[in-house]
Amino acid sequence: MKRRSQAQVEWANRLLAHEGAVSSADECATTAGRVYDKLNAHLAPLLGSAGVQALLVRSAQLTRTEFPFLTAAIPEGSTKLRECLSAQDPAVARESAAALFATFFTLITNFIGERLTTQALRGAWPTIEEMASRETDQ
Fold first, then answer.
1. What angle do the packed helices 6-19 and 128-137 form, to 10 degrees?
2. How does DSSP classify residue 52?
3. How far apart are CA 18 and CA 20, in angstroms?
4. Residue 51: alpha-carbon gap to chain centroid
5. Cα–Cα distance between 122 and 90 in angstroms, integer?
6. Nearest by Cα to 27 from 78, 93, 101, 80
7. Measured between alpha carbons, how far is 103 from 105 in angstroms, rounded to an integer?
8. How many CA atoms lie within 13 A of 1 on its CB side?
9. Beta carbons of 90 and 23 less than 8 angstroms apart
10. Among 69, 108, 111, 134, which is most buried by a count of CB atoms within 10 Å?
């Protein structure tokens, strides 16, 4: 697998910011849980819930050298992810959530392709493209 790109990290950070505040560990945990749940809801029809879960588990395994605590949280679902991130320093919670989701985007893109991944993510976050273009205009 190729390493997650800076663009995927930025995409993950944008989704986290779009879903809510990430200034405290608790806020980041809640926000990451929402992203996790939306990814599952919008990708399960395409990959099946077990497929989405497997890719999230693999994403956690691939980030374990940086954030070993994620490998125990992901198989348990979004509630366990929230608990795990809440227990971290706010900066670590933000960085680990972004790394997890960026790695997930890398895997899913390798699995189903960039076009289908983009379509699925736009289905979950239809206004995210508008938000990105506003950020670059400023």
1. 110
2. H
3. 6
4. 15
5. 28
6. 93
7. 5
8. 19
9. yes
10. 108
